[in-house]
Structures are given as C-alpha cells and as structure tokens.
Design goal:
By secondary structure, the protein is of the alpha+beta class. It has helices at 13-26, 32-41, 73-83, 129-137; strands at 49-53, 56-60, 62-63, 90-95, 101-105, 111-115, 118-126. The longest helix is centred in the first third of the chain and has 14 residues, at 13-26.
Length: 138
C-alpha cells in the first residue's frame, strides 16, 4: 500500500501513543489508513510523487511526521491555529516542494491542497486519505 516509501517498515509505537494524545487534545479521530501509515513509517522519507486531479498536477515530497522532525504534526497545527488562516478542522498530511501543504478534513477525511499564497481557496485532491495514498502509489 505504501510503495512510495524509501525506508523500511518499522515499529513506531511512540507515534501511535502520540496519535492518541493528539486525538484527545483536538477531539478528532485519525483515519485508519493514516494510523496504519504512522505505525509503520512515521518520519520515513518518500520518493517524489506526482499525480493529476482534473488536469492539475500535484506533487508530494514529504508526509508530515507525528514526531521527530522540525515540521512535525503538532507544530504545524499550532502554527496554523496561531495564524488563523487554516480552518480548525484541517490537519496536516503532506507537503510539496513549494511549501504548500495537504490537509485532511477531520469530519470527512477529504484531502485538500492549501497553497501558501492562496490559503482561502483549498483545492480538493482526494475524497479520503486512503484515496490520497492510492494516488501516491500510481
């Protein structure tokens, strides 16, 4: 399922504990496929992935880690909340080379690309987080 990963599968027990803390803190539930990803590959590098949505080319260079990075999940959420630009029901998933982030919506698990210079117009790229990961595998 996660063919885009450069690293090897590992056991990320600390990431799962952190997910539970985050879910309690923000009153959300992570999508099952995202929990599976973090339980096996949190912090691993990925190959550059490209896919199209309605003729628009998207790219992904990094899946936002739960722990162990300068730009980890909670630091991005806190920064987004402080700035007030990103809706409170959006949570970081990935980023592209241009510094734009992909977010999953907590109520629907839809995935949106939010451009750093046009945050008011999120672009829907997948119906679910699972669909997003499938696009990365193509």
């Amino acid at each position: 399922m996660f063919e885009f990963i450069k690293g090897k599968e590992k056991n990320c027990k600390e990431s799962i504990k952190k997910i539970k803390e985050i879910e309690n803190k923000y009153g959300i539930l992570f999508p099952d496929k995202l929990v599976e990803f973090y339980s096996l590959y949190d912090g691993e590098k990925i190959d550059l992935r490209k896919f199209e949505v309605n003729g628009f080319e998207c790219e992904v260079v990094k899946i936002v880690p739960i722990i162990a990075d300068k730009m980890f999940f909670e630091s991005i959420v806190e920064s987004d909340r402080a700035d007030g630009f990103i809706p409170k029901d959006y949570f970081p998933l990935a980023r592209d080379r241009g510094g734009n982030f992909y977010y999953w919506k907590s109520e629907t698990y839809e995935v949106f690309l939010v451009f750093c210079d046009d945050y008011e117009n999120p672009y829907k790229v997948a119906d679910t987080v699972n669909d997003f990961f499938l696009k990365l595998n193509d």
